[in-house]
Design brief:
The complex is a heterodimer of chains A (564) and B (399). Helix content of chain A is 49%, strand content 15%. The two termini of chain A are 37 Å apart. In chain A, α14 packs antiparallel against α15. Chain A has 564 residues and is of the alpha/beta class. Chain B is of the alpha/beta class and 399 residues long. Chain B has a domain of 269 residues: Rossmann fold (3-Layer(aba) Sandwich), CATH 3.40.50.1460. In chain B, α10 runs antiparallel to α11. Chain B starts with a helix and ends with a helix. Classes of the chains: A alpha/beta (564), B alpha/beta (399). Chain B: Keywords: GPI-anchor biosynthesis, Signal.
Chain lengths: 564, 399
């Protein structure tokens, strides 16, 4: 309607001013100018107050606030100094209190003199003394029972293999007199204790020294070179080898027991009772450290891979032998179904291989061994069952393996499981070794969770375009609080509690680092941004900007005209 | 005085560094990530490249569980394939690369930039199976091989997207931060391949590519019966080296030998090698053996039953037998103590080592109530309707 009106008007003016300037349009009406101004202003208002905030909101990356400095402190070892005060209880049924305390004091003194690795030390306590302070009780690492025995000339000790008790038998004459500061009995006990925990100490020193946290912590107070000096190179070598062999920590391990045989027999085994008898007890005692699931399978007609050198027949001993250097090719990784993707944890494989009757007995060349460990993977045991005659004078494997035939295999598997989990080799008492494992795990988890925190902090700073969701922040704070509670528990000598906290810390730390929304194609070069925005914004932008420029020019011109 | 003092204080630390370096010079496992990034029949050669590498690393001992193979297309089952079910990388068709023993971890449209980066950084859903994860750790040597169509600082994935050299560098950077590799060998065969590793910044990486900036990488030869080129030049000559000179997993051929075998007159482009991220630089890096990356760690520990050292198998067996015995008496005690405790024991004991097999009902996936979302949707709809009504009312009043 108004356009029509304008049209007719412009044609009129065009007609009237025809000779002078046909190209000049008529002056706009003020209300048309007003309308155009309104339109341009409305568009720009929408762009500025709606479009721009929406663009800003939708393209900005959410980055939750993380306690970067605190995280870096943990990784750098500034927040926690891992210490391992082992509490050792003295049980002195035959000694009067005063003398017992005297003995304790001297022994403690001797121990402190012997110890040069300050992060790991032994604290002695009398049994009844401990009973009084029931609160905040530390885990007792070892109980030393002092038993007087008359017919002895020098003290001797006996480590009970089933419990965490060290029996020390001593001649009564060696009880130190109240005034003395040194006694053969106390130095004997101190020496024994030192020996018992030597390997654990070496492992701890190794773990701490290979980590920024441990290194930082130990350099000022007790230069680790001293601690290292105490460790013989032989022991250090075996520790490195063992740590390299053991599995990476996981919350859950899957134990997979597999029976492989090249023929059709044996096709069944008493696996359930074997697992119940040999693996369950072990899993039970390992339950504070990790969870375990157990799977089993029987695979018949399992052949070696074609590239594996076949076993050779040894005429002199009438056995088939495998060369040690060929063992790594023994597992036919391509064809044996050994990688069940069960859940999220790693699988530890235990393989029971029953050779064909024509190749039985099968042994490993050197040392006539029948089992070996594959580092970070599992173990293999070769079982040579007594062959039974089948129909036509040929020998065959028994169709069923009873529980008693599985005994050596499963004892070996238990041993391999312990090795693969990184259990130390000394002392001879299994409960003591498991306690040591708990301390080792607590230490490694504490260190690895701390270093993950450091990694996450550095990642956050180095990649400004990576999103950090709120769940990461909450996981980080959970990690930090559990780390500090683990550290406190360690200081108080409550290692089980420390391990429990450290496990939570590790899980949360892993969760925060591997948060799956923290991906994206993070880097866009500038030319990419131009390429994304230009096709969209170019066609829209040109009229908008030009309109704005024209309006501004009109306003400025009008304003100047009014002033001038 | 004070500098000496500082030196003294630093000594133990230096000792550690030395110790740490000495310890960490060995790796404990090997992983391979082999990626082809292009689809469609005429890119047959890229898949053949990757499958040849796959076959080589398997031959040298890396098990399937430690190889991540990404194939964006299935050439063996392509209707244009004159030899169905097979893939060859040579016109003589001597070796069927597809064979009957191949485990493709990511296939088809799963091969994306996002999945690749997620794989490297392990930012995957919890329910992603282990076969699709890179489970490497601080002791793992990782081989990353990529091939496809690329350009200056990018590599195209599936004709739809591309990975930039920056993203790749950041992914490796994150892997290093989380200790997901010990040493990494990065190989890439694409046009302008050497530009892909220019942005790397994390240590312990050796990178090599097939061609320089503004150079194309060419295919080696075509098989007239297959009808397309079957392998790229650079990969062909790398494979030739691996097949002829790295014949066993104990081979002593070094990376230096491999890179010296590059012949630019044959490859028709200038392959590049980047050493500067590797500690010790070129000198040290050249000494790494090829099987450090293409083979698997070859170590087993035979347990001798007759050894008498402490912690040996024999001693352990005695202890374990004792533990078993003890366990038996304990469970007998439980049995004696009465049914109650027995039941408790039964309930408690299995839970720690067995996955409980329960029949779970369907579970709600989302925690949030749908009502909020419905309300939001309703209010948006209402607002739109209101705008429409006011708009039509306004136009009505104006007319």
């Amino acid at each position: 309607m108004s356009a029509n009106h304008e049209d007719s008007e412009s044609s009129q003016t065009a007609m009237t001013s025809k000779p002078s300037a046909s190209s000049l349009p008529p002056p706009e009406k003020p209300n048309a100018i007003q309308t155009r101004f309104g339109v341009v202003a409305a568009f720009w208002a929408v762009i500025l107050f709606l479009g721009f905030p929406i663009w800003w909101k939708t393209t900005s990356i959410y980055r939750a606030e993380l306690p970067i400095q605190e995280m870096l402190d943990w990784a750098g070892g500034k927040s926690c100094r891992p210490v391992f005060p082992l509490e050792i209880r003295f049980d002195t049924p035959s000694l009067p209190d005063l003398e017992a305390q005297q003995l304790l004091r001297i022994t403690q003194h001797t121990l402190d003199d012997l110890n040069e690795f300050s992060a790991h030390h032994l604290r002695l306590k009398l049994a009844d003394e401990e009973a009084q302070q029931a609160t905040e009780k530390a885990d007792t690492a070892l109980t030393v029972r002092l038993l007087a025995q008359d017919d002895l000339s020098s003290p001797r000790s006996l480590l009970d293999a089933d419990t965490t008790t060290l029996d020390v038998f001593y001649p009564p004459s060696q009880i130190p007199p109240p005034s003395s500061s040194i006694s053969p009995l106390s130095s004997y006990i101190a020496g024994e204790l030192q020996r018992l925990f030597a390997e654990e100490k070496a492992i701890m020193a190794h773990i701490l020294s290979n980590n920024a946290m441990g290194a930082n912590v130990n350099t000022p107070q007790s230069p680790n070179s001293q601690a290292q000096q105490q460790i013989s190179p032989q022991l250090a070598e075996s520790i490195t080898r063992r740590l390299r062999r053991s599995m990476k920590y996981a919350e859950t391990y899957h134990l997979a027991f597999s029976l492989f045989t090249p023929g059709s027999a044996p096709s069944s085994w008493d696996i359930e009772s074997a697992v119940q008898a040999y693996i369950s007890p072990l899993v039970q005692v390992l339950s504070p450290i990790s969870n375990f699931t157990i799977d089993t399978q029987v695979q018949l007609y399992a052949s070696f891979s074609p590239t594996t050198p076949p076993p050779e027949y040894d005429e002199t001993q009438q056995v088939w032998t495998l060369k040690e250097e060929n063992l790594s090719a023994f597992i036919n990784a391509a064809e044996w179904p050994l990688n069940p993707s069960i859940g999220s944890g790693p699988t530890i494989n235990f393989i029971l291989y029953v050779p064909a009757p024509s190749q039985s007995p099968l042994l490993v060349n050197e040392g006539k061994a029948t089992s070996w460990i594959i580092p970070q993977w599992g173990g293999v045991f070769i079982l040579n069952p007594p062959s039974i005659p089948t129909s036509e004078s040929t020998k065959g494997n028994p169709p069923h393996l009873p529980a008693n035939a599985l005994t050596p295999a499963f004892l070996t598997f238990s041993h391999q499981l312990l090795s693969l989990l990184g259990t130390p080799q000394t002392p001879t008492s299994l409960p003591l070794r498991l306690q040591t494992l708990i301390r080792i795990r607590a230490a490694t988890l504490l260190l690895s969770a701390s270093s993950t925190m450091g990694s996450l902090a550095r990642l956050t700073e180095s990649l400004p375009s990576i999103p950090i969701p709120a769940t990461v922040a909450s996981s980080v704070s959970a990690t930090l609080s559990h780390l500090s509670s683990a550290c406190d528990s360690l200081r108080q000598g409550r290692f089980m509690a420390a391990l429990a906290s450290a496990r939570v810390a590790e899980t949360e730390a892993e969760r925060s680092f591997f948060e799956k929304s923290m991906v994206g194609q993070m880097y866009f070069p500038d030319e990419h941004k131009v390429a994304v925005y230009l096709p969209l914004l170019g066609p829209i932008g040109v009229p908008l900007v030009l309109g704005l420029v024209k309006e501004i020019r009109r306003v400025v011109v009008g304003w100047k005209a009014r002033r001038g | 005085m004070s500098p000496y003092f500082g030196l003294l204080r630093a000594l133990p630390f230096l000792f550690f560094l030395f110790f740490a370096v000495r310890v960490s010079s060995e790796h404990t496992s090997n992983w391979a990530v082999l990626v082809a990034t292009s689809r469609f029949w005429f890119n047959y050669r890229h898949l053949a490249n990757v499958l040849s590498l796959y076959r080589t690393v398997k031959r040298l001992g890396i098990p399937d569980s430690q190889i991540i193979l990404m194939l964006p297309d299935d050439m063996a089952c392509n209707p244009r394939n004159a030899f169905p079910g097979t893939v060859y990388s040579n016109a003589d068709r001597a070796v069927d690369l597809y064979g009957d023993n191949i485990e493709v971890d990511y296939r088809g449209y799963e091969v994306t930039v996002e999945n690749f980066i997620r794989l490297l950084t392990d930012r995957l859903d919890e329910d992603v199976p282990r076969s699709k994860r890179l489970g490497s750790d601080a002791g793992s040597n990782v081989l990353v091989y990529m091939t496809g169509h690329g350009g200056d600082q990018f590599l195209k994935f599936q004709d739809a997207e591309e990975i930039g050299a920056w993203d790749l560098a950041d992914a490796f950077g994150q892997m290093w931060e989380k200790k997901r590799y010990h040493e990494l060998l990065f190989m890439i065969d694409t046009c302008q391949a050497n530009t892909m590793y220019t942005h790397f910044y994390s240590p312990n990486i050796i990178a090599t590519g097939s061609s320089e900036l503004d150079q194309s990488s060419y295919s080696h030869h075509a098989d007239n019966d297959v009808g397309v080129a079957v392998i790229d030049r650079w990969t062909y000559y790398v494979l030739e080296f691996l097949e002829n000179r790295v014949t066993s997993a104990n081979s002593k051929q070094t990376l230096g030998d491999l890179f010296d075998s590059y012949d630019e007159t044959k490859i028709h482009s200038n392959p590049g090698v980047r050493w500067d991220l590797f500690p010790g630089g070129e000198q040290e890096g050249r000494l790494r053996t090829v099987v450090d990356f293409f083979g698997n760690v070859q170590s087993v520990e035979v347990e001798k039953t007759d050894a008498d050292e402490s912690g040996s198998l024999k001693e352990d067996l005695v202890e374990l037998a004792r533990l078993v015995e003890k366990w038996r008496t304990i469970s007998q005690d439980y049995a004696a103590a009465g049914n109650d405790s027995l039941q408790q024991d039964n309930e408690r004991a299995p839970s720690s080592y067995e996955v409980k097999r329960r029949n779970l009902g369907p579970v709600k996936l989302a925690e949030e109530t749908p009502w909020e979302k419905r309300l939001i949707g309703l209010s948006i709809l209402g607002a739109c309707a209101a705008i429409w009504f006011t708009g039509s009312a306004l136009t009505g009043s104006m007319t």
